[in-house]
Design a protein that fits this description.
It comes from Priestia flexa. With 137 residues, the chain is of the alpha+beta class. The protein is built from 3 helices and 7 strands; from the N terminus they run αββαβββββα. The protein has a 7-stranded antiparallel β-sheet, with helices on both faces. The radius of gyration is 14 Å and the shape is globular.
Length: 137
């Protein structure tokens, strides 16, 4: 039940706010879990793309807790262009979008979408302080 609610929330967040017009710069969106609202929309910069790529490169394994979404914190949605190849313990995925799950009480988690909109949750070790600074979080 919790998993279905989490996925519904995520899909709602992604579906409502991911419409990008042709030729327009892809947008990074910051969703605040406490309020259930997008609090910031910004153009995706090269710095943001590289920070997410470094986070993906530092993946240590699949996230194993029951609920990957905290009650408080942020979801930072970053469209990946070009898409990033993720190879992890028998999993080979081409990620087209990343969501960094930020919680004040836990380590960040990476949520990756492949080109078929399948969702994968990963733990990683990269320090995302530059990403936080770039997005003013």
């Amino acid at each position: 039940m919790i998993k279905k609610v989490c996925i519904a929330l995520i899909l709602c967040f992604i579906g409502i706010h991911s419409h990008v017009a042709m030729g327009e710069q892809p947008k990074v969106e910051v969703f605040q879990l406490d309020t259930g609202k997008v609090i910031r929309v910004a153009d995706k910069t090269e710095v943001v793309q590289k920070e997410v790529e470094k986070s993906i490169a530092s993946i240590t394994g699949i996230y194993k807790k029951v609920n990957p979404l905290p009650k408080t914190g942020y979801l930072v949605k970053v469209p990946l262009d070009p898409a990033v190849q993720v190879q992890q313990k028998g999993l080979d995925v081409l990620a087209s979008e990343a969501v960094v799950v930020l919680s004040p009480n836990e380590q960040p988690v990476l949520m990756l979408y492949d080109n078929e909109n399948k969702i994968y949750f990963f733990e990683f070790t990269y320090d995302i302080s530059t990403l936080r600074k770039e997005l003013e979080l």
